[in-house]
Specification:
This protein is of the alpha/beta class. About 40% of the residues lie in helices and about 15% in strands. The chain is globular.
């Protein structure tokens, strides 16, 4: 991971690049401490707690004067924005801190549910352009001051397959379609609005197919939408989340699924997918970056906001970022410079050593890395996909 990555918005240096963690001024006035330690409610709609919960809990250990306990809950991304909006309209927000992918983040932006942290609290944080790696910083800018990237990875789209069952592996988008029609029901991807691999697969197709504008799903994806319609004819159904695709691949009811680096490594570590299953790319492959974010809903009391801003800053330090290697779920994971895997917990190092793929270093270094769709185009893509492609065949 020390080779440089080719990336449309700048060259990413490897993890050993040195960068100042803290530049510029900090808060002119230190945030007021709460009168007593607070209970903070955290909701996760991105599966990020399996990565970040140890670091979040460590904040409580290191700052017992600020937090007495965290209460963790999980939900699906499509339901979050409406839930927060209803709470805000009722004047009773009971969610303090959100871990989200760009799916629920985009939906929340559409409904105006997020607290604008920057530039109002800019002096509470380091220079983010120097703190984040370029790919992560590109996604940080997409947060429009309403969220902070907590972990980042080049993502996909990758294909994962059972080598004993797939002897004629597709090597292009066209041959994947041909393979799918010849093996109906044996290829699968999950509903994009609640699946990182699902949306990464869809967002990667415009690059594979040479569409007019990969960042404009409404007016620039003529080939992609046509392709997805054709592909739909040989897909049995679309799960409401990625885990179901992994289980079906592992159990043998599917032979090829859409995946990402993290969703390749982590399910094999968990034993959901056999260790010897393989990954592949298609001709013309471009990575589409992905990240998880930290956000604060509007309506959270200022006393809690002050603590949550400190939590965000804490989670962006190298010692906490090292937890983001986890068991490969967002491989590599850290979003900031200078967090080599040697800083990660030993169990994370062991997982990556056993279940990581040596070829990922070259794949990340040698292929372009593109930004995902911005908030409004992403919401438009989700809506069009649900209406025109898989909505009638999607299952929770």
């Amino acid at each position: 991971m020390r080779r440089s990555m080719i990336i449309r918005y700048g060259a990413i240096a490897g993890f050993a690049v040195t960068a100042a963690l803290s530049t510029g001024s900090h808060a002119q006035t230190a945030p007021a401490k709460p009168k007593q330690p607070l209970t903070i409610s955290v909701i996760d709609v991105a599966g990020d707690l399996q990565i970040s919960q140890p670091a979040i809990e460590k904040f409580k250990t290191d700052h017992p004067d600020l937090v007495s306990r965290f209460v963790f809950t999980k939900a699906t991304a499509p339901e979050l924005a409406a839930k927060l909006k209803a709470q805000q309209d009722a004047g009773r927000v009971d969610i303090d801190f959100v871990l989200t992918g760009n799916d629920a983040l985009a939906g929340g932006m559409e409904q105006g549910v997020w607290l604008e942290i920057l530039p109002k609290f800019q002096d509470r944080f380091a220079d983010l352009s120097k703190l984040y790696m370029p790919g992560a910083y590109a996604m940080q800018k997409m947060g429009r001051g309403q969220a902070f990237v907590i972990d980042w990875y080049p993502s996909g789209p990758l294909l994962e397959y059972a080598p004993a069952r797939v002897k004629d592996l597709p090597d292009s988008a066209e041959s994947l379609l041909t393979w799918c029609k010849a093996h109906p029901g044996r290829f699968m991807y999950a509903r994009p609005s609640n699946s990182g691999p699902g949306r990464t697969f869809v967002m990667g197709l415009p690059y594979l197919l040479g569409d007019k504008d990969p960042l404009d799903p409404v007016n620039g994806w003529e080939k992609t939408w046509s392709y997805l319609n054709e592909l739909d004819t040989c897909i049995e159904y679309y799960p409401g989340g990625t885990t179901a695709t992994m289980k079906e691949l592992g159990e043998g009811s599917r032979d090829i699924i859409a995946t990402t680096t993290g969703w390749d490594i982590n399910p094999r570590y968990l034993g959901i997918v056999p260790e010897d299953f393989k990954v592949a790319t298609l001709k013309g492959f471009h990575w589409v970056g992905d990240a998880n974010y930290m956000a604060i809903p509007k309506g959270v009391p200022q006393e809690k906001v002050d603590v949550l801003l400190q939590l965000i800053g804490y989670l962006l330090k190298p010692e906490q970022q090292a937890y983001m290697y986890d068991h490969g779920y967002m491989y590599p994971g850290p979003a900031i410079h200078n967090v080599p895997i040697e800083m990660a917990p030993k169990e994370s190092q062991d997982t990556i050593k056993k279940f990581g793929r040596p070829e990922y270093a070259a794949m990340i270094a040698d292929n372009p890395i593109e930004p995902p769709l911005d908030a409004k185009p992403l919401v438009a893509m989700f809506d069009k996909w649900d209406r025109e492609i898989g909505g009638s065949k999607a299952r929770q």
